[in-house]
Amino acid sequence: MADLTTDFLGIKSPNPFWLASAPPTDKAYNVERAFKAGWGGVVWKTLGEAGPPIVNVNGPRYGAIWGADRRLLGLNNIELITDRPLEVNLREIKQVKRDWPDRAMIVSIMVPCEEQAWKAILPLVEETGADGIELNFGCPHGMSERGMGSAVGQVPEYIEMVARWCKQNTRMPVIVKLTPNITDIRYPARAAMKGGADAVSLINTISSITSVNLDSFSPEPSIDGKGSHGGYCGPAVKPIALNMVAEIARDPETRGLPISGIGGVTTWRDAAEFLALGAGTVQVCTAAMTYGFKIVQEMISGLSQYLDEKEMTLAELTGRAVPNVTDWQYLNLNYVTKARIDQDACIKCGRCYAACEDTSHQAIWMKPGRVFEVNDAECVACNLCVDVCPVEDCITMERLAPGSVDPRTGRVVEAEYGNWTTHPNNPAAKAAE
Amino acid sequence: MAADIYSPGVVAGRLDAETIAANFADLHPPYDGHEAAVAADRCYFCHDAPCITACPTGIDIPLFIRQIATGAPEAAAKTILSSNILGGMCARVCPTETLCEEACVREAAEGKPVEIGRLQRHATDTLMAAGIHPFERAASTGKRIAVVGAGPAGLACAHRLAMKGHDVDLYDARPKGGGLNEYGIAAYKTVGGFAQAELDWLLKIGGISVHYGAALGRDISLDALRDSHDAVFLGIGLGGVNALRVEGAVTEGVMDAVDFIAALRQSGDKTDIPVGRQVVVIGGGMTAVDAAVQAKLLGAEQVTIAYRRDRAAMSASRYEQDLAASKGVRLMFNAQPEALHGNGAVEGVEFALTQSVDGQLRLTGETRVVPADMVLRAIGQSLDGTPEGIALAGGKIAVTGAGRTSVAGVWAGGDCAAGGDDLTVTAVAEGRDAAEDIHASLLG
Ligand SMILES: Cc1cc2nc3c(=O)[nH]c(=O)nc-3n(C[C@H](O)[C@H](O)[C@H](O)COP(=O)(O)OP(=O)(O)OC[C@H]3O[C@@H](n4cnc5c(N)ncnc54)[C@H](O)[C@@H]3O)c2cc1C
Ligand SMILES: Cc1cc2nc3c(=O)[nH]c(=O)nc-3n(C[C@H](O)[C@H](O)[C@H](O)COP(=O)(O)O)c2cc1C
Ligand code: SF4
Ligand code: SF4
Ligand code: SF4
């Protein structure tokens, strides 16, 4: 069993799997059971100012989309930050941290964009013995209408300012949680770093409407015939989150800034992908909300088996894929592949044919007896057939050996790396050295 | 002239080796990767899952299926084996249709449960093919425990004890270990010498010394074992068979189903196993079904299972009954054997027809004779050679808690112990739990 012990900003946890700030972490009752199930840490559900508690809607607060067999793929919510009194949360945080000293306890905070508000709450949180704080600049609904959440996260100057206030007013490590509802994630990340934040976490939820009721004409979830955009999360958002994590990991200005990866983590594989793209820990919300706390056992066993097989430490996995994330212009144009169909695995459904014939490059033959074969003279290696085939590994992409002739172009496949910057068709091409 | 299915009497070689090999192929062939992925995808990862409750060894089924779904079958196998060290055999032989798969919520939803048994096999086969034994022994405790019987109960007990750091002497009267895994289970459920392969794999834990050909009551005594060891576990199964009380003194062509099956399991290509042309199997359990089906697969022309009660009362599951029917076995209900006809060799069985009225079995007064040149008795096994001084309950060793017998320092589990179904998986659970109890009482 590989060692999954994690050190993130000096905060130790037995594994990198943390529960994200959300309903699973809203109370001691949940968090203690999560720790019993094996979660390495939690980010407590976002706390607001002292005073009258937050009011949530009293009708449905979640909408969803499903895949085949009603598998939940995306969830959206219009829930606000914690609606329990501040003192109750603080008391429970203190008690849980005392009883579970080896687990990471991060407290998420969202108060108005005024220094006084932050100065007021930070000592209260510090007093619980929590390991760190996460600034919630992300929720895209409700709180943003009140000038908090993503309303802050969308303005880099505000992020920098609030991060600085926090660093000046607490000894605790500060994690800034970023909203994906912006055009370029690097700007808010740079701002957080400038403000002195110790780390960023991302992504929070994405503004969304999951569906419209075609009888009542209300968006779902519907509150008395009306709906409001919610925050989208779950497996469907993982690709968006992975890209944003990678962008920050490889940005020269933020390189080395610790990242806690969030968004659609459902299995050990998802987690390993976030880690490989530079995350030091991952946070999970929807998967726990769909399957319960027990799923962490699969994540722990899967990740440690993977590390054992690769003879790699957790630290060695973190960031391992970052050097391989590059710009399009640097991709090797001399890497020529063709689709190959494994005739023994093929079940002859014809999906590859329909896809390629109707929407791609007419590179698949349908021969008598429903035999599907790739015509190398037409195949541009787009990968569409691979993606639509219902049988995993039935269609694979095989590289043409350097020196052989690509029947589509009639050109000899070159062994050397060659990209767009030096391509003859590029008017701005620099001469190859 | 070679025998064929029409040859009269009890003869070997009714079918050629190739046909027999095809007939005895794997009942449920292993999944390929694609099938396993699709099957695993159907599991809902239920909370406090009913399938776990229905498993006598309490395997964490949703967890192991999720591990398969996420591409980690070896981790899945470890989940299985940590509850049930014979998870490989159980994946092949468990009547899942009355255990986990009957309880699966997708049975309620669509009448089609998640195929837990086959998924379990996928995981355990993957691990064993990789030659991995995923458990290690704890530091030595210096204690030595005798385990008598190397069937599922004894093996599960020995493995768990070895894991806890105890040294184990494992005794069995037979020349090979495995118990009914090796001598009883239908050949098409455990092909390719799996029972011995699994046994060898299990013993890789270390700390278990095997002593085959050592029978309690003949070569060793319980008193001596109690003196030489810190504790004793009895997993001796049911060595005896219940007698068939019928008229007629014919003996030729009449045998116990378990002996027929044991000979068949020990044969190479099975062309040397004699079988009748018209076979009647008497009984209503799994042994009856297995004997009948295998007689048919060896080339018997007509095979009948005769059971004295109605279909619903039969202890073989509906699935087993349908399996028999699909192989061409005739199921005859409400037929109570009265007499064996014949002169030296059996020629037929006379049955009194019965009726169940308010749970009582009544004779209708009618009789029927079924022609037979081979009769297989499968009306149950019984405890044979109970060690001196041990209290019994209902013909089996009386136990309290996790297999404690009436004699201090002696535990029992599996078929020989009272309580629980006579199933491989139940024997494993009882052996494992007794080991935990022995461990707790030795170190407590
Ligand atoms: C024909 C048949 C088919 C079956 N099919 C299935 C099936 O498909 N699925 C299923 O779940 N269950 C099946 N069962 C039941 C299952 O095989 C048993 O429940 C299980 O094997 C019990 O395990 P055990 O360890 O208690 O006993 P056994 O497997 O009987 O093992 C007992 C061991 O003790 C040894 N022994 C006995 N007496 C002594 C002694 N005096 N000294 C030393 N050693 C001794 C024996 O040689 C044997 O190796 C079947 C049973 C039979 C007979
Ligand atoms: C119901 C719900 C409530 C949430 N509340 C908060 C919150 O209070 N604070 C916060 O920072 N993020 C909140 N989130 C966002 C999650 O912490 C997380 O960033 C997001 O769900 C993406 O992760 P996932 O795909 O694993 O769910 C909430 C998410 C959900 C579904
Ligand atoms: S999940 Fe629980 S709280 Fe939510 S609507 Fe259903 S029953 Fe009510
Ligand atoms: S999509 Fe896949 S399975 Fe279907 S015909 Fe094409 S190669 Fe065969
Ligand atoms: S009951 Fe069925 S669906 Fe539910 S966890 Fe068990 S196998 Fe999966």
What distinguishing features does this structure have?
heterodimer, A: 433 residues, alpha/beta, TIM Barrel, Alpha-Beta Plaits, 2 domains, 8-stranded parallel β-barrel, B: Fumarate Reductase Iron-sulfur Protein, Chain B, domain 2, FAD/NAD(P)-binding domain, 3 domains, 5-stranded parallel sheet, binds flavin-adenine dinucleotide, binds iron/sulfur cluster
Report on this model:
The complex is a heterodimer of chains A (about 425) and B (about 450). Chain A has about 425 residues and is an alpha/beta fold. Chain A is about 30% helix and about 20% strand. Chain A contains 13 helices and 20 strands. In chain A, β12 and β13 (about 220) form a beta hairpin. In chain A, α3 (about 115-125) packs across α5 (about 155-170) and α5 (about 155-170) runs parallel beside α6 (about 185-195). The longest helix of chain A has 16 residues, at about 295-310. Chain A is globular. The two termini of chain A are about 50 Å apart. The model of chain A has no long low-confidence stretch (mean pLDDT about 95). The mean pLDDT of chain B is about 95. Chain B has three domains: about 35-130, Fumarate Reductase Iron-sulfur Protein, Chain B, domain 2 (Orthogonal Bundle), CATH 1.10.1060.10; about 145-240 and about 385-444, FAD/NAD(P)-binding domain (3-Layer(bba) Sandwich); about 240-375, FAD/NAD(P)-binding domain. The interface between A and B is medium-sized, with 17 and 19 residues. Bound molecules: flavin-adenine dinucleotide, flavin mononucleotide and iron/sulfur cluster (SF4) (3 copies). Flavin mononucleotide binds near residues 136 and 237 of chain A.
Question: What does the oligomeric state look like here?
Answer: heterodimer
Radius of gyration of chain A, taken over Cα atoms and rounded to an integer in Å:
25 Å
CATH class of the largest domain in chain A: Alpha Beta
Largest interface: A-B, 17 and 19 residues
Give the strand line-up of the largest sheet of chain A: 3-4-7-8-9-10-15-16
Q: Provide the β-strand percentage band of chain A.
A: 15-25%
Domain tally of chain A: 2
Number of domains of chain B: 3
Shape of chain B: globular
CATH class of the largest domain in chain B: Alpha Beta
Give the strand order of the largest sheet of chain B, numbering strands 1, 2, ... along the chain. Answer: 3-2-1-4-17
